[in-house]
């Protein structure tokens, strides 16, 4: 396995945001992490990325990176697309990529990356003038520019329209076919699950069940502890009943 976590735990005061979670993902494989808001999904990805202090172990390509900061994990092949904005708003799309490549001392053509995410025609547009979906695609390109072996994606499809969603999904699917290990969490379960080989359900900070993609939505634990409750929530849209669960990440 290229990435694995063993008994990973994160405390938020007296509350265990993530409690004893173990997982693994191989090259060319995609693992989805799903669950209700506040389940600990984003915190789990932050812990894997080295953004928050955690107990337990994180192994990356055979090395224990549990005590390494984010920068060192990135150098070892970890990519991370956080839930919040990460673009440089004052720079153009092209310069956003050039800056990332320069800091990492990598030689690559920003035009190829922009073309991959469908932003070639927007190369000289400042990031602040891009649409929300375009910025999300640029954030994906920034992460891929570092040539990660593993990519953590937190809510990559949030707020995307049909065109942006189609491009983002196609890019991630192609990279996984080429050997990228992907770990993704998103409230748009149907769209994210379609990318995955396996899926993990988190509830109250714990990993409740893991299943192959085709068995995940029918697993009793998933139906009883996630999909049914989410679909019944009055604030959720009708699409929730089709595995498109709205709400904030957690």
Structure in words:
- With 250 residues, the protein is of the alpha/beta class.
- It has a domain at 1-77 and 150-163 and 185-250: Rossmann fold (3-Layer(aba) Sandwich).
- It contains nine helices and ten strands.
- It has helices at 41-49, 70-75, 93-103, 110-116, 132-145, 162-177, 189-193, 213-216, 220-232; strands at residues 3-12, 15-25, 30-34, 55-60, 63-64, 78-81, 150-154, 181-185, 198-203, 206-212.
- The strands form two sheets. The chain has a six-stranded mixed sheet, sandwiched between helices. A four-stranded antiparallel sheet has the order 2-1-4-5, with helices on one face.
- Helix 5 packs parallel to helix 6 (162-177).
- Residues 231-242 and 244-249 have low confidence and may be disordered.
Whole-angstrom Rg: 18 Å
Beta-strand percentage? 15-25%
* Chain-averaged pLDDT: 91
Order of helices and strands: EEEHEEHEHHHEHEHEEHH
């Amino acid at each position: 396995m290229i990435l694995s976590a063993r008994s990973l735990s994160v405390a938020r005061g007296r509350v265990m945001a993530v409690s004893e979670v173990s997982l693994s993902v191989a090259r060319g494989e995609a693992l989805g992490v799903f669950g209700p808001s506040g389940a600990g999904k984003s915190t789990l990805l932050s812990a894997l990325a080295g953004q928050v202090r955690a107990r337990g172990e994180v192994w990356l390509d055979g090395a224990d990176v549990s005590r390494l900061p984010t920068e060192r994990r990135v150098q070892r092949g970890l990519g991370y697309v956080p839930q919040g904005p990460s673009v440089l708003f004052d720079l153009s799309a092209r310069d956003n990529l050039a800056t990332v490549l320069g800091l990492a001392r990598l030689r690559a053509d920003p035009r190829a990356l922009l073309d991959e995410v469908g932003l070639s025609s927007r190369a000289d547009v400042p990031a602040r003038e891009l649409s929300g979906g375009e910025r999300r695609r640029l954030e994906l390109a920034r992460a891929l520019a570092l040539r990660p072996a593993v990519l953590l994606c937190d809510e990559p499809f949030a707020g995307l329209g049909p065109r942006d969603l189609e491009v983002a999904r196609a890019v991630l699917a192609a990279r996984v076919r080429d050997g990228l290990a992907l770990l993704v969490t998103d409230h748009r379960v149907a769209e994210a699950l379609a990318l995955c080989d396996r899926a993990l359900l988190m509830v109250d900070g714990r990993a409740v069940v893991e299943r192959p993609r085709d068995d995940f939505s029918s697993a009793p634990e998933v139906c009883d502890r996630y999909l049914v409750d989410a679909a019944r929530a009055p604030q959720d849209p009708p699409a929730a009943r089709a595995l498109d669960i709205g709400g904030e990440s957690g």
